[in-house]
Design a protein that fits this description.
Elements: E1 6-7, H1 11-20, E2 23-29, H2 34-50, E3 56-62, H3 67-72, E4 80-85, E5 88-94, H4 98-116, E6 132-134, E7 137-139, E8 148-149, E9 160-162, E10 194-195, E11 202-220, E12 229-230, E13 232-239, H5 247-252, E14 257-260, E15 271-275, E16 284-294, E17 300-303, E18 305-312
Parallel strand pairs: 1-3, 2-3, 12-17
Antiparallel strand pairs: 2-4, 4-5, 6-7, 8-18, 9-11, 10-17, 11-15, 11-16, 11-18, 13-14, 13-16
Helix pairs in contact: 2-4
Length: 330
C-alpha cells in the first residue's frame, strides 16, 4: 500500500495543500540528517494511521530542495515538525524527539475531531453571546462583528506563565481548543485550568507569529468550589514587550490598558468578553497579561481559557533559507 505522505515539490503545491486540507502536518528534513532518518519511520506510521482526504494531510519538505518554504517558516534546525490548521501555523516542534512528536499527534487528533464534528459552527456577532464551536475550537463568547479568533497566531512554544500551581494545568491549557472540562458537566478527570501558586497574581507572556490588531480579549474562569480560588478582577495589559515582565515591573509600570472586571462581565459560560482600546492595540507582536488581583478575599486566581479576537496584519515574507547548522535536535 502506497504511503499517504505527500512529498512537496514546490511552494505552489504546498500552498495548495494548505488551502485544500483542513489540517496539514509538515516534516522539514534533509537527506543528510541522521536524526531525520531515525524518526522518519514513526512519522510514516502516524501518517498511515491518521491521514484523511481533505482533512488531515502529512507532508515531507526537503529543506535543501524547498528553501523558499523553509525560509518562510524560519526553519533553523532539523527535523522540525509543523502543524497547520486552515492554512495557519498552530504548533512547531523541533528535534527528533518521539515524545514531542506524540504530543503533536494528540493535538492533531483533537484538531481533526473538531473539524470532523463540523468545526465551522455558528458564532454570535455581538460582544456578549455564548460559547461556540468553530474551526478554531471552543469559545466562551461570540465574536464582535467583523473580527475573527486570532488565537491561532500565538507562538505557543515561546509563551511563558509565571506563578502557576503545577498541580493544575500549565500555560498550554489556557489556549486549548476544547471546551473547559468544568463546563462539560459530569466528573472531571483532568485539571484543565490554571491556578496561581504563592498568591493571586499571574504573569503571562504571549508572543505572536504575525502582527495583529487586537479588538477583544476573552477570558474564561469557572467559579471554583474552593472559596480561596477566585476569578480575576484587576488586569494590566502591556504590548510589544520582547519578553515577560517581572512582578515588580508589572505592578510599577503604566499599562497599555487597565481592566477591572465586575460580576456582570461574566456570562453563562463563565467568560468575560473584554473590549480593548483598539487604537492602542494596532501592530501588536506580543502581549503581557498581568492578573494583579482576584475578585474576592481568596489567595489564588483561576483561569480556564484565553482567546484573542481581532485581525491579522503583516505576514512573513518568503525569503532565502539561511544555512542550516548541525543543531539537528539529536
Amino acid at each position: 500500500m502506497a504511503s499517504p505522505t505527500v512529498h512537496i515539490e514546490s511552494a505552489e503545491q504546498f500552498n495548495q495543500l494548505l488551502n485544500s486540507s483542513k489540517i496539514v502536518v509538515a516534516d522539514f528534513f534533509a537527506d543528510w540528517c541522521g536524526p531525520c532518518k531515525a524518526i522518519a519511520p514513526l512519522y510514516e506510521q502516524l501518517s498511515a494511521q491518521m491521514s484523511q482526504p481533505n482533512l488531515v494531510t502529512f507532508t515531507k519538505v526537503n529543506t535543501e530542495k524547498q528553501q523558499q518554504i523553509a525560509s518562510a517558516y524560519a526553519i533553523r534546525s532539523i527535523p522540525t515538525f509543523i502543524l497547520f490548521r486552515d492554512g495557519k501555523l498552530v504548533e512547531k516542534v523541533q528535534g527528533a524527539d518521539p515524545t514531542k512528536l506524540q504530543s503533536l499527534v494528540r493535538q492533531i487528533s483533537q484538531e481533526s475531531q473538531n473539524a470532523a464534528a463540523g468545526g465551522s459552527g455558528s458564532s454570535n456577532s455581538g460582544g456578549g453571546g455564548t460559547g461556540s464551536n468553530s474551526a478554531l475550537g471552543w469559545r466562551g463568547a461570540g465574536l464582535p462583528r467583523g473580527y475573527t479568533d486570532v488565537t491561532d497566531q500565538l507562538e505557543i512554544p515561546k509563551t511563558e506563565l509565571l506563578n502557576f500551581d503545577e498541580e493544575f494545568g500549565n500555560v498550554r491549557v489556557l489556549f486549548d481548543s476544547s471546551k473547559p472540562g468544568a463546563l462539560n458537566g459530569g466528573k472531571k478527570t483532568e485539571k484543565d485550568w490554571v491556578v496561581s501558586d504563592t498568591d493571586e497574581q499571574l504573569l503571562l507572556f504571549t508572543p505572536f507569529m504575525s502582527v495583529l490588531k487586537l479588538h477583544t480579549l476573552q477570558i474564561t474562569s469557572v467559579a471554583d468550589e474552593d472559596e480561596e480560588i477566585m476569578r480575576p478582577k484587576v488586569l494590566k495589559l502591556f504590548t510589544n514587550r520582547p519578553h515577560n515582565l517581572g512582578f515588580d515591573d508589572a505592578e510599577g509600570e503604566t499599562p497599555t490598558q487597565l481592566i477591572e472586571l465586575k460580576d456582570s462581565d461574566w456570562n453563562q459560560d463563565s467568560t468575560a468578553n473584554i473590549p480593548l482600546r483598539f487604537v492602542r492595540f494596532q501592530n501588536i507582536n506580543s502581549l503581557v497579561i498581568f492578573v494583579e488581583s482576584g475578585e474576592g478575599e481568596g489567595e489564588k486566581t483561576r483561569i480556564d481559557r484565553i482567546r484573542f479576537i481581532g485581525e491579522t496584519g503583516e505576514k512573513r515574507e518568503m525569503g532565502k533559507l539561511e544555512k542550516i547548522g548541525d543543531d539537528s535536535g539529536a
